[in-house]
Fold this sequence. Notes:
Blueprint: E1 3-7, E2 16-22, H1 26-34, E3 44-49, E4 55-64, E5 75-81, H2 84-95, E6 100-102, H3 107-114, H4 120-131, H5 135-145, H6 148-172, H7 183-202, H8 204-212, E7 214-219, H9 226-234, E8 252-258, E9 261-267, H10 277-292, E10 295-300, E11 316-319, H11 339-354, H12 363-384, H13 390-408, H14 414-421
Parallel strand pairs: 1-6, 7-9, 7-10, 10-11
Antiparallel strand pairs: 1-2, 2-5, 3-4, 4-5, 8-9
Helix pairs in contact: 4-5, 6-7, 6-13, 7-12, 12-13
Amino acid sequence: MDTIYALATARGKAGVAVVRISGPLAFSAVEILAGDVPAPRRAALRRLTDQQGVLLDEALILTFDEGRSFTGEQSAELQLHGSVAIVNAVLRALSEMDGLRLAEAGEFTRRALENERLDLSQVEGLADLIEAETESQRRQALKVFSGALGEKAERWRASLLRAAALIEATIDFADEEVPVDVSPEVLELIAITMLELEEEISGARMAERVRDGFEVAIVGPPNAGKSTLLNALAGRDAAITSEIAGTTRDVIEVRMDLAGLPVTLLDTAGLRETEDHVESIGIERARLRASQADLRVILIPEAGAEPELAPEEDDLVLIGKDDDGKFNASVSGKTGQGIDRMVAHISQTLADRASGASTAIRERHRVSIKDALTSMESARNEVLLGADRADLAAEELRRAVYALNCLVGRIDVENILGEIFSSFCIGK
């Protein structure tokens, strides 16, 4: 296997820049640059020179033995002064060494997967951890990266293997009288595992929302104060405001962090009957995005007015442009009246929903769990039909185990690895 290297920190000026090296020639590369190889896992300060003896930098060096590093390979990290010129000089010196090449995007992490330092769900958790922008995203990604989903999958898999072994024992001794009826234990193992899988899949959608972000739509008739409210929440002029009805024609999005949750606020076209073709397209888009949003803030022009959209559970119906705060259920983007109360309701509602998020954070996870559930349902039915269906029950349990193996990347993952690692930067 090639020895790879790359800059692991962001490009540009910085206090420190880290260059990573991984592979069978990692220690040899360090020896060429530093003159010796510091003891593994003990930082050592060394002067780095290229093969012509030209001084490159004075750096802190960390080395890791095979099996003790992130990739599972012999590895080293060079902590350089964060100068663009120094980094370029060190990378150039590494490129001139035989057997070394620049790493591809995500290649360090891919080697960690191939060397069984991480399972596939942990790799996906790491990708989400790098992309995390809010506290809730960080906590969720770190939980998956720490192996929570893999641990669950291993427990589910062990239960199904036990159930399959019991059934196969009856097949092996089909011509003899089996002293114990194994079906009660098999059915119990299947039932417990199915219950846990169903709980996991029920929280998968919320986990995806935490990862990708919730959407909150601000809707109402023209001149209800929607764009002014969006600008007040964003702290900038994200949307054009005007007394002229129909100013907003398209959906305007503003990404925010609300109580640690990623939330996209949507300012939509005013809902009304119109003969303007372009405005009517905007109104249709407004209705569609509002129906797909996780929560809606529905503004009405005055007390007692009928909302333009029928509110759903947890939606807010507020009087817009209540600058003086005459009403309790009101808000004003101009004066800020009622905004704190509105934000608190949105934050609490979304936080309550996010609390039910599972460790299955991607569509791929949901599909694997669903496939396992389908096979387990079939296995249970076969067991209930009697001992002469034991071979079919065992096969369905093997299918369920296969689905769980796919979940953590034991098998059948080559077709999705390219997509996963394309999101990683070079050096990770």
